[in-house]
């Protein structure tokens, strides 16, 4: 299980294991804000509520968090489906504006595509190939990535992630 870490001002800054979150609490570096209902961390003699959300006891300046442009992160952003036909098989990356025509590998120029659509599109833009993009490619923010693409979906996190838009 994972826990959401909030900065002193309640802004989300990270995700960690519940064991690491408990250690932050135990070392008086954080307080438990929300627990997982009915789940416990047990020692030999004591049981503790399992932390779902913890808040640091002092503000930590965090450098700008950038989401790494990677194949897997583009797949996550696109819901692991072809942005042309919706297929979930044989996925690859496609440059909306082909590299041969000056297209770069960037968040706004890469989409998930199945191999058949990628082959049909070839060296054309989607419009030239007669394809419609399901979603315009975009660069996700760190908070958006935590909320929508991290693979963790805990109801206990929702109020703290919604605070940041």
Nutshell version of this structure?
The chain has 165 residues and is of the alpha+beta class. Helices cover 24% and strands 27% of the residues.
Give a description of the structure.
The chain has helices at residues 18-26, 71-77, 115-121, 126-129, 142-149, 158-162; strands spanning 2-6, 12-17, 30-42, 47-56, 91-95, 110-114. The protein has 165 residues and is of the alpha+beta class. It has 2 domains: 2-64 and 142-162, no CATH class; 71-129, DNA Binding (I), subunit A (Orthogonal Bundle), CATH 1.10.30. The two termini are 24 Å apart. The model has no long low-confidence stretch (mean pLDDT 91).
List its traits:
single chain; 165 residues; alpha+beta; DNA Binding (I), subunit A; 2 domains; four-stranded mixed beta sheet; 6 strands; elongated
Strand order of the largest sheet: 2-1-4-3
- Mean pLDDT level: 91
How does the helix and strand content classify structurally? Answer: alpha+beta
How big is the Rg?
Answer: 21 Å
What is the approximate shape?
A: elongated
Give the N-to-C terminal Cα separation: 24 Å
The largest pleated sheet is described as:
4 strands, mixed
What fraction, in percent, of the residue positions are helical? 10-25%
Order of helices and strands: EEHEEHEEHHHH
Strand content: 25-35%
Helical stretch tally: 6
Uncertain spans, ≥5 residues at pLDDT below 50?
none
Count of DSSP strands: 6
Number of domains: 2
